[in-house]
Amino acid sequence: MLQPNKKNRTPNKRPLFNMYWMYALIALSLLALYYFQDSSQTKEVDWTDFEKTALDGDIVKIMVFAENGIAEGFLTDAGAKKLHFDMSSTIPGDKKIKTTIPSSDKIQEKIDSWNATLKAEGKNQIKVTYEKGSDLMKFFWYFGPIILIVLFMVYMSRRMSGGAGGGGIFNVGKSKATVFDKNNGTNVTFKDVAGLAEAKVEIEEIVEFLKNPQKYTELGAKIPKGALLVGPPGTGKTLLAKAVAGEANVPFLSMSGSDFVEMFVGVGAARVRDLFKQAKEKAPCIVFIDEIDAVGRARGKNPNMGSNDERENTLNQMLTEMDGFQSNNGVICLAATNRADMLDKALLRPGRFDRQIYVDLPELSDRVEIFNVHLRNIKVNSKLDVEQLARQTQGFSGADIANVCNEAALIAARNNKQAVDWNDFMAAIDRIVGGLEKKSRIITDDEKRSIATHEAGHATITWMLQYGNPLVKVTIVPRGRALGAAWYAPEERQIIPTQALLDTMCGLLGGRAAEEVFTGQIGTGASDDLEKCTKIARSLVLVYGMSDKLPNINYNDSTGQDMGFTKPYSDETAKIIDAEVKRIINEQYERAKSILREYSEQHNKIRDLLIEKEVIYHDDVEKILGKRKWKSRTDEIIEINKKEDEERERRKEIELTGHEPEQPASESPEFPGDPDLEDPGTPPPFNK
């Protein structure tokens, strides 16, 4: 394991400057100003002299009596001269006499007698006020605003320093990185990260390099400078980083990209410097920056009156720290983003991020592993088929699967069940994908029949197509914004042939086609289907080059450099594109109507069954339409996996016994005599 560089330095024992020292000095100054101010303008007299002064109407203008037995008399200018006060001060109300009241109970009678005497002599009567409180209240009255200002400065300095103690406003340039080490780990290991086999191999190699560097350095290999985790949201990028923190046994500094951004100029660059300074001191270590696109966005893109200057300065400092003039030996940078197309090219080059690890949505086998991880703490039915559950969640991320498991447990608890079963998971998937069931929505009989006709059209056409996805269920129960839905288990394909895209379009148009064929009029319920169908048709022409008139041409800019202000084709080509999109959609629409006319009787049975039950499943449709002629890709994968398992068991038996295992005397086919399971050969082309 690499050891940190140790330098013989004399520790600096000078006390560090702290902003709170300044606050303490201000408070002491205020106290000194209050207690040690010039008291020559206040004279203490006994009660007899105070009474004589009060009976002289030209000396005292206001008397103040406090609850603590102290009386003060504020003098007029003539009275101040008569009592020999210093008249150089011009502050009003600073010349007064002070005494102690002998008896607070009869003071009001004394004041009344004074005023009666002054009135009889024709002199000005004394204004008297009573004051509740003490010297402490006076202190807050005079210096309260200053104290509030000081407290506000303390509060703002702590906010700017992220709430960290000490440093105050001078700590604003410090990084907010969270440090994980042996004593403060994340308790997450690679065992907790299900799926992501390829990504874990890349990450585990970095961890292995930190644990056993000699294995690599003997061959001349260098430790990678950085790895960038790229992928859609919820696929496990941050979870992988947590696993690295739990496995590496080296200091792990975690920080979000938005933590570098602050309202003060230069703070972002200062925090980058401080982050890498900490990393060098703790080397070997790992620095993880989550959502790096907050500061790593490409420079010069979408300039907005200089508002990007601070972010660009932060990015420049990060580029310098990662691979600049000074080396960062032993510091590995991990970063995560789902917007890799927005990052600056200088940030992505080798030497800064040597590896870009794409964390994609999980495949079928990955989803099975993810379900098994999240079902550890959930009490599920022993008959639950996790593999079939994984097939129902194609396109789900790891976060989505975790949400499905939690939602299923909530639904089971709501229904007072002892364990979570298959129906709870199906209800959870419906809730997450389709939305909340709208039981209060009022639907007339005509609308219900129209919705059933629409959904039955989807089910019938998809069942009869070669590349149609396997049907799970059809429902006319409203959920979210949808009045009904046909649920499928989509096939996972790496390369999609042209016919598969055309079959998908035909299935999407099946609902609108059924409305026209069987009701004679169309409604607005097919808007979502038409939107998806139009996107596929435009992709056929503009992206995949599958058009007859515009073959092998791709007008899409996958790099994201094109700002989209100009079209990459002429106006004449735009007319051809529009014509081709219309032609493809119209052909699939006519194809859908042709299939529905051929299977009109079966369609009507599915429609009537939907009206009766509201939800029908795969077996119900199979009883009406028969078994599908086209074997699904999922069935092919299952057969391949089954053969691989059998071959693996056979090899294991040979290793143990030294001879081939005995085969059964005769093996009958799984479904003997069923003509629907025979190889149908090449499918006949549909009429266009």
Brief rundown of the structure:
This protein is of the alpha/beta class and 688 residues long.
> Mean of the pLDDT scores?
76
Strand % is 5-15%
The helicity comes to 40-55%
Instruction: Detail the poorly predicted runs.
Output: 1-17, 163-170, 665-688
Output the radius of gyration.
Answer: 41 Å
> What is the CA–CA distance across the termini?
68 Å
The main β sheet shows up as: 6 strands, mixed
Report what the structure shows.
With 688 residues, this protein is an alpha/beta fold. It contains 23 helices and 14 strands. The chain has a six-stranded mixed β-sheet with strand order 6-8-9-10-7-11. A five-stranded mixed β-sheet has the order 1-4-3-2-5. Helix 9 runs parallel beside helix 10, helix 12 crosses helix 14 and helix 16 packs across helix 21. The radius of gyration is 41 Å and the shape is elongated. It starts with 18 loop residues before the first helix and ends in a 31-residue tail after the last helix.
Topology overview:
Elements: H1 19-35, E1 42-44, H2 47-55, E2 60-66, E3 70-75, H3 77-82, E4 96-100, H4 107-120, E5 127-131, H5 135-160, E6 178-180, H6 197-211, H7 214-217, E7 226-230, H8 237-247, E8 252-256, H9 267-282, E9 285-290, H10 309-322, E10 331-337, H11 345-348, E11 355-358, H12 364-374, H13 386-391, H14 398-414, H15 422-434, H16 445-464, E12 471-475, E13 485-488, H17 498-508, H18 510-519, H19 527-542, H20 571-598, H21 600-613, E14 615-617, H22 618-625, H23 633-657
Parallel strand pairs: 1-4, 2-5, 7-10, 7-11, 8-9, 9-10
Antiparallel strand pairs: 2-3, 3-4, 6-8, 12-13, 12-14
